[in-house]
Amino acid sequence: EVQLVESGGGLVKPGGSLRLSCAASGFTFSSYSMNWVRQAPGKGLEWVSSISSSSSYIYYADSVKGRFTISRDNAKNSLYLQMNSLRAEDTAVYYCARRSITMVRGVTQNWFDPWGQGTLVTVSS
Amino acid sequence: DIQLTQSPSFLSASVGDRVTITCRASQGISSYLAWYQQKPGKAPKLLIYAASTLQSGVPSRFSGSGSGTEFTLTISSLQPEDFATYYCQQLNSYPPNTFGGGTKVEIK
Questions:
Q1: Which residue is closest to A96 within chain B, CA to CA?
Q2: Chain B residue with minimal CA distance to A35?
Q3: How confident is the model at residue B108 (pLDDT cuts 50, 70, 90)?
Q4: Does B34 touch chain A (CB under 8 A)?
Q5: Distance spanning both ends of chain A, measured CA to CA
Q6: Is B43 in contact with A35 (Cβ distance < 8 A)?
Q7: Distance from A57 to chain B by nearest Cα, in Å?
């Protein structure tokens, strides 16, 4: 079964740091780009960061650039998000998601599937 | 950045109703659009990718259409388990892979 399991969330004070992990199983992790997506309480989905299969390409949302670092360890089938200088507005459930790619009607298409169950990060004094 | 505008943001419907949700992109994204369903306390679930391709295991009452800047998600006959929030996502270019603001479907 293809599965993603996040961990590492919790309560942290403003300015603090936290490291999220996402453990992958049931597929060849090293072949896929991976993503972090967050959802603030009662709000919509916000893409946070992406990393290519070999870590060659890394992207961040402007809202976290310079504060968050995405990384992966293909030997451990794991994805990480190091979050520094946390702010109240970073409070959210953080999901990891696999970027799946295939040809559809002659065009390379991609989408996010599966998603992990999410881990809650609360930034509060 | 490409912006996605979903409408309506909220809709009230009855079991058996036909429901249509619209997603408009601020610039053309060809068919690089996915739809997700999210229930309270759960992770999003992929319904449709490439604008109109149904994900394996998703009931056939769900369908997607559109290309360019205007897309629709249709539920042909709303079932009790379909009451949820629906999001579109553009995958034409990133960063960022933008999501729409969501459409909450509630029971009338």
A1: B43
A2: B97
A3: confident
A4: yes
A5: 40
A6: no
A7: 11
| Whether the predicted pLDDT of B94 surpasses 90 | no
A60 touching chain B per CB within 8 A: yes
Encoded amino acid at A40, one letter? A
pLDDT in tens, A1-48: 999 999 999 999 999 999 999 999 999 999 999 999 999 999 999 999
How many residue pairs from chains A and B have C-beta atoms closer than 8 A? 73
pLDDT band per the 50, 70, 90 thresholds, residue A79 = very high
How many angstroms away from the CA of B18 is the closest CA of chain A?
Answer: 24
B23 band by pLDDT with thresholds 50, 70 and 90 = very high
Vertex B63 angle, CA B58 and B66, to 5°: 140
Q: Position B91: which residue type? A: L
Supply the mean pLDDT for chain A: 97
User: What residues in B contact A115, CB-CB < 8 Å?
Assistant: 43-45
